[in-house]
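Reviewers of the previous submission asked for a worked example of the structure-prediction workflow described in the proposal, so we include one complete record here. The input consisted solely of the amino acid sequence. No template or homolog information was supplied to the procedure at any stage.
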Amino acid sequence: MNNVPATMNPKLISSGLHQYIDRETASVQSEQLYGDRVVNYLYSAVREKAPLLFKAFTSSSSSYLVGLWKYDVTFGPACSGVSSFCRKLGIDLSECVDNPATFDSPRKVFERKIRYWERRPMDSGASTLVSPADAKLLLGSLQTSSQLFLKGKFFDVYELLGQEKALWHRTFQDGDFAIFRLTPDEYHYNHTPVSGVVVDYYEVDGTYHSCNPGPILSVVTPYSKNKRVVTVIDTDVPGGTQAGLVAMIEIVALMIGAIDQCYSERCYDNPQRMEIGLFVKKGQPKSLYRPGSSTDVLLFQRGRIDFCQDLRMNQLRRDAVSRYSLGFGRPVVETAVKVRSTIGQALPPTRETGTHVP
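From that input alone, the workflow returned the following structure tokens.
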């Protein structure tokens, strides 16, 4: 492994390269960030020189129109058009539930259902926590003593949860978090990361900033400014994961028109909206992002999750050129994870952490 920090290599810094770790092979992979040049231009020149134009571009109406133009253009000849499009993005059509011949537009591809019960196996252990999405994962902590301390780098926890939610501010103020960055080519259903009872569910209004690393490094902090849906799940209940209270925040981004809540206990059958009192089972479909890039953030109470060692170690690797590492001056490297794959183990409450309710 190359031990020279990426932050010390000017050639790599100027290349615009962004790399992550493939979890299955532990290898370094390079990512072609979607619309990178346009996004970086918008968040530098346009944001600084034409703030009103920038504000209009990140509005809900503009995001909807751009998404409509980008994703609702009809393919050419059905089979060849879909196949060519999916090959270019590396999408595996063999895992889809529906016949790919029915995919007549990019939107149909991005909103695809997959046979997750076969193609995304899950550890059935009661105390495991799983990834809510096919995504690039970063771990963090709000505790200054933690090696993963990243407070204020990606979001303000009070703003993220909604300024009026004092109860949840106290609950998660010293906790840990996981950020899942979905790119436009990935499967866009979110799945529940834990089992438990929904104790709160609400929307927070906001803008439609890009979740590309560029805007994050320019201190836009889109995670706590974009429109988002917050679901708080009590897992310390019979049949629950026993990981305390867990907040799942689903965040829209540029070209995301909506987040459809469609929880299903089996496959994609009989979808229902989130509501307080609903018991959700780990690994089941919870919601669908409309096409584009988007982000999930999971918040955990202090001392209630032990993240998998490979994910923690990957984040500290120095042989990957991560935009985050370059921006923060220390290794901060994403890992590509699959939905329903294990990200950690639940820990019981201790005298130090207290019970799960503030």
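Residues 1-14, 61-69 have pLDDT under 50 and may be disordered. We consider this example representative of the routine output the project will generate in years two and three.
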